[in-house]
Amino acid sequence: MEPKVPRRRHTHQRGYLLTRNPHLNKDLAFTLEERQQLNIHGLLPPSFISQEIQVLRVLKNFERLKSDFDRYLLLMDLQDRNEKLFYRVLTSDIEKFMPIVYTPTVGLACQQYSLVFRKPRGLFISIHDRGHIASVLNAWPEDVIKAIVVTDGERILGLGDLGCNGMGIPVGKLALYTACGGMNPQECLPVILDVGTENEELLKDPLYIGLRQRRVRGSEYDDFLDEFMEAVSSKYGMNCLIQFEDFANVNAFRLLNKYRNHYCTFNDDIQGTASVAVAGLLAALRITKNKLSDQTILFQGAGEAALGIAHLIVMAMEKEGLPKEKAIKKIWLVDSKGLIVKGRASLTQEKEKFAHEHEEMKNLETIVQEIKPTALIGVAAIGGAFSEQILKDMAAFNDRPIIFALSNPTSKAECSAEQCYKITKVIAQQVSDKHLEEGRLYPPLNTIRDVSLKIAEKIVKDAYQEKTATVYPEPQNKEAFIHSQMYSTDYDQILPDCYSWPEDVQKIQTKVDQ
């Protein structure tokens, strides 16, 4: 097999600044020729090591640290210094590093964001920038942006209002876009919309990096969001993906409904979580050998994630032929006030759709015994909500209970996988490793890039069938084409493109023709 030729990348940068550019920096992997021609010779130790050895150094430093938070800081420093190496480390063992770069560790990182703030990442747009958001976008150094993850920090994971500290979420999520999906990190933009915070601790914290004021709401907030959406689409185009992340329930649904038919946008908490959860349910049905429309599903939680999953389940049941009204009746939700039933006071419009005729009930154990669900889904961020009794009851009602504890971070999960297996005694029935593997509901995390490639291939095929594709002529080998567009962690060739001419053409004239 022939060695892979490095991709050539042009840059005008030279000298010290080049070694401080994370997109171009190779650290000790710069060759002698590169060091001399780029005027960085002497700025690096006289040693030359490969990226593989650099990864080894990072891993050794990673392992000697005692806490995941310190490991997170190590990786973020690496991202700020050497982007290619950062993503090579992540993709070397995505199952190991994803919980550090994103949940659960990113939750603690957000809580401590102001304390450990070193180098700003992403774009900070405050409510006081109203009328000038387009100018703020011009401060960002990249002109081609294909994906934006934006939050206002009001509902970060299960941790509540973290205000400007919520920037850790867009940064971490976009790192996964690259590590898992192969997107170019320079084409990704993390954004925090700082409209204030209701978090008293942050308002009193002298180290807090955000606005020290109460949250702006109402028409002023809506106008701010409208301007942001218009400015982003004007600068980066209508095909720039705008992902809403960790907005409060009061805003999430209405903003999604407001923008979904006008911009390239989606809400990850409502739609992203729903697609993954329903995919897991459909995979579980391959084990239980029945249909989705045969299930009775109980949600612990009735926020964005729960309602998003519930709506998608209804759509999936309709696809099986069940009328929408009957599909809705198979879904029950429990919020902080108990079972959602008709006649209960203060139900939102979204919750009202899933309210059924039933007496009011508050205790989850009693509700499980009453409803006897075949599937139990936890998305309320109440740690340990699925008690031992609930898990035992689920096992008693069902030969193969479906239990999804989806809340994050881990401290907010309704139960652990180990508790679920042990108490329901499911693992005792799955004797062989082969059977355990057959019981897996999702592809192994370490195959996520391959899975992303396959999903992208299906989307591309659909785009050409629906006449919505923008790349022509149509690639014959779509998988190869997509793979060629995915971000590579291999170092680029950043020297000028040097090549030879015929010798007779290069001959220097020494005499003036008479």
Automatic annotation (TrEMBL):
Keywords: Cytoplasm, Metal-binding, NADP, Oxidoreductase. The active site is at Y102, K173. InterPro entries: Aminoacid_DH-like_N_sf (IPR046346), Malic_enzyme_CS (IPR015884), Malic_N_dom (IPR012301), Malic_N_dom_sf (IPR037062), Malic_NAD-bd (IPR012302), Malic_OxRdtase (IPR001891), NAD(P)-bd_dom_sf (IPR036291). One of its GO terms (cellular component) is mitochondrion. Transmembrane segments: none annotated. Residues 79-260 form the Malic enzyme N-terminal domain. Its main location: cytoplasm. Divalent metal cations. Prefers magnesium or manganese. Pfam families: malic (PF00390), Malic_M (PF03949). One of its GO terms (biological process) is malate metabolic process. GO terms for molecular function: identical protein binding; magnesium ion binding; malate dehydrogenase (decarboxylating) (NADP+) activity; manganese ion binding; NAD binding; oxaloacetate decarboxylase activity. Homotetramer. This is Malic enzyme.
